[in-house]
Amino acid sequence: MAPAPDARVKITEAYARMVARDAYFWAWPMVNIYNRRLAFARCPEPMLANGVLPTAPLNRLSMLHDYIAPEQRFVACPNQDVVYGGSIAAMDLSPVVVQVPDFGDRFWVYQVVDLRTDSFAQIGKMHGTTPGFYLLVGPQWQGEVPRGITQVFRSSTNTAFVVPRVFQDDTPQDRKAIQSAIAGIDLYPLAEYDGEMKLRDWAKLPKSPPAAAGSEAGESRWVFPEKFLQQLPEVMADAPPLPGEEARYAQILAVIEAALHDPVLEAAMVDEATKCEEELVKPLLQFRNWGIPMGNHWSSLDNTAAFGTDYFSRTAAARSNILVNAPRETKYIYQDLDAQGRRLNGAHRYTVTFAKGQTPPASGFWSLTLYDADHFFVPNELHRFSLGTKNKDLKTDGDGALTICVQAEAPPQAQRSNWLPAPKGDFSLYLRAYWPQTSVVDGSWVPPPVDRRD
């Protein structure tokens, strides 16, 4: 039996289009991360791109020192509950050392995902991680592990995304207190490891123009149909087939090889990739189009950062809110609709009421964030984009319930602390439970409905 399709065989345009459509949808998250790696590779030093985005050369890390600014467009659905960091590890160049300082009682987690956006390292408070040094290595690395490395995590791909998240209260006091906690967060090539914790004042990072081009209202574009055929073989070389994917890889590579020698087939495949972007990928920005229904029109996923061969969920998450944590680390719950199934829109007033003792069950923290139709923050007079554990002035009702007002116009003064400002147009709501408790993980806890009040 032939080990793979024969690339010399003449194929039809319709067949090439079929393969292109399937391959484009399947590979969309991997090509997305691949192009982010190319952008980071152009960065000369750790910095804040355009003053807002933590960006660093490959195998380096950059940290914010406060909440992420609403202007950033690098990643959709950011939160303003944590101080973020960002790094792309290129383990084909070198293994990398990840520093974990002592965070004390403060909640923290490092997201570490491969080219597929699947998690391969468990580093965080919920994992019982101790302060120290951790090593990320690629699939083929066989070197010696230096003394003092607490644990080694091996990736199935040579490209990884590392995103530290450290919880911060929305107070001036905690903004000051967190600086000493985040000073020990870092990542660097193994050759620079000396067993000594390196410290940095992340507030002193230089600022630069954006590392990636793009001026669209939504997320910066990272997947380009016109570059798809040229980029995909390199992407697939970095991400070897999972068990059972060998035939898929052979088919895709054979068709790409044929297309690169036939301008008609190549044009047809690029055209089909463009159609796939518009017809299949673009609708996945809307949460109401995918996910596991949880009740009250909320939806979620149970396999975030552990997608494996669940290609639909992986691409849906990548298009709408890429770089999600693993289920044990964070439970994400999404909403586009009110209790009657109508699209959320700032022309109306809404309330979300958590009964006494029924806020999202989390051992870390919880938050309710509002995003515009493109899944970014909406500028407002309070500079407020979420409410939850970080807010110390939330007021409960007489029965102990917590009611959050979601509307464009300011509510009466007595309700201002519980006001989540909305835009004039469509918007989405997004619940996070960091270090989720069992009831939210197994679905026995269901978020309350979003009730329209006019």
TrEMBL record:
Residue ranges annotated for the DUF1254 domain, each copy included: 59-189
Gene3D superfamilies: Domain of unknown function DUF1214, C-terminal domain, Domain of unknown function DUF1254
Pfam families on file: DUF1214, DUF1254
DUF1214 domain segment(s): 330-437
SUPFAM superfamilies according to UniProt: VPA0735-like (SSF160935)
Name the UniProt record assigns to this protein: DUF1254 domain-containing protein
Organism taxonomic ancestry: Bacteria, Pseudomonadati, Pseudomonadota, Betaproteobacteria, Burkholderiales
